[in-house]
Write a structure and sequence with these properties.
Order of helices and strands: HHHHHHHEEHE
Structural class: mainly alpha
Distance between the termini: 37 Å
Strand order of the largest sheet: 1-2-3
Largest sheet: 3 strands, mixed
Number of helices: 8
Strand content: 5-15%
Helix content: 40-55%
Length: 196
């Protein structure tokens, strides 16, 4: 409700569930342990909890909130630190992949670009973020364990937003995804409208 009030894209339970599921799927496909998969699932679900404090620096405030919650739930200290680290490093302005769980959360989060995340329904008032998200008609993260590739496949409606607009606002996120993929021993690929 905080982000809705200030006009940000959707960060509701649907986004949390998608990131949780995708982060777990990434590690599962790449053969990581059940324990790491479960930590990625938890970190993915609560990665945006800091938005309740403020959008600015939400990764760090979210990490602190998660630490207290997980400590009160008596989670193992090493598991708490893994989750807190993933949350604290998921924002492209201050973070980077530092372990497999954080890498999976980053890839899951930064690949969640889709039309139904745009809250603004007045097309005439769309800013560039609204336009780019609305223009993405399909988004899929393909994990190829055998070929050691992670491919973000997008379909963008060029009549709404250009591919250049996408790169203008998401270039830093794509660089972050490349580094996260490399930490997982994979090459990051990016396919838009069928072109690599």
């Amino acid at each position: 409700s905080v982000l809705k009030a200030i006009g940000y894209t959707e960060h509701s339970r649907a986004h949390a569930m998608k990131i949780s599921t995708t982060a777990a799927s990434i590690l599962s496909t790449l053969g990581y342990s059940k324990a790491e998969i479960e930590l990625a699932r938890i970190a993915g679900y609560i990665h945006d909890i800091g938005n309740v404090v403020n959008r600015t620096d939400h990764a760090h405030s979210g990490a602190l909130l998660a630490f207290d919650i997980l400590k009160n739930l008596e989670m193992e200290p090493d598991d708490i630190l893994t989750i807190v680290t993933a949350i604290g490093h998921h924002d492209e302005n201050t973070g980077t992949a530092v372990n497999p769980v954080s890498a999976a959360v980053i890839l899951a989060d930064k690949s969640d670009v889709r039309r139904n995340r745009v809250r603004n329904r007045d097309f005439s008032t769309f800013d560039i973020h609204d336009r780019v998200n609305y223009a993405v008609t399909s988004s899929q993260l393909d994990i190829n364990n055998k070929g050691k590739e992670i491919n973000l496949v997008l379909e963008i409606d060029n009549s709404i937003s250009s591919i250049m607009d996408y790169f203008e606002i998401f270039l830093q996120r794509m660089i972050m995804c490349r580094r996260a993929s490399e930490l997982l021993g994979c090459r990051f690929r990016f396919t838009v409208n069928g072109v690599n």
